[in-house]
């Protein structure tokens, strides 16, 4: 039981800015096995966004409540995935060889491609959430954050890490663990789908799987595998697609 707690707290430490005990044991094995909790981290981050939005909607306009909820989730993760998305845009936008792409993504500075991509992604996320019925936004945040974090897990378990030296500019990258870890991640990623219309689940899940397949094929053709920045970019893409899909589904259902 204590080992499972250590694995969970390592996931908290790795994927969020939530404080954990300084004496927490760490090893590559524990980090790799902590990927089982990555979609569950989506429950936590999505829950933070949902609570902030739900509470602030009573005192602020919905648009401001949405913006502040987005900022709360970014603060809770330390912009971990947004940073990956920006580096992905810079690397694949400005690099033409595997070595050049990896070098650009490892650079802590943000370039033109990253700036434009990040602004566009955040604006799309805001506008999508703003187009969703106010009463549905907390549930959409919870579902979107958890399901979107399942997509990088699929890449981790079907691809190889791309950097030859297994290096990262910030933190080590969690790699595939055991089969049970994948099944647990699958459960955490899909659990919130029971609370949304089955008709939407049958649309968005295949759409995200197809997006993940195309994304994985693209990065594999360029890099031969994935990097942490690629995983962060995929999480952001999947999250935005979930919101966009909900807007389309909502408008069609009316």
Brief characterization of the structure:
The protein has 254 residues and is mainly alpha-helical. The protein has helices at 2-15, 28-33, 38-56, 62-77, 80-94, 98-106, 112-130, 137-148, 150-158, 179-190, 198-223, 228-253.
Describe the protein in words.
The chain has 254 residues and is mainly α. The protein has one domain (26-253). 72% of the residues lie in helices and 0% in strands. The longest helix is centred in the last third of the chain and has 26 residues, at 198-223. It is globular, with a radius of gyration of 18 Å. The model has no long low-confidence stretch (mean pLDDT 91).
Question: What topology emerges from the helices and strands here?
Answer:
Elements: H1 2-15, H2 28-33, H3 38-56, H4 62-77, H5 80-94, H6 98-106, H7 112-130, H8 137-148, H9 150-158, H10 179-190, H11 198-223, H12 228-253
Helix pairs in contact: 3-4, 3-8, 3-10, 5-6, 5-7, 5-12, 7-12, 8-12, 9-10, 9-11, 9-12, 11-12
Biggest beta-sheet profile? none
Strand fraction: under 5%
Helicity range: over 70%
Compute the number of structural domains: 1
Element-level helix/strand string: HHHHHHHHHHHH
What is the C-alpha radius of gyration, as a whole number of Å? 18 Å
SS field, number of helical segments? 12
Q: Output mean pLDDT.
A: 91
Q: What is the approximate shape?
A: globular
Poorly predicted sequence stretches spanning 5 or more consecutive residues: none
Distance between the termini: 48 Å
Number of strands: 0
Structural class: mainly alpha
Descriptive labels:
single chain, 254 residues, mainly alpha, 12 helices, 0% strand
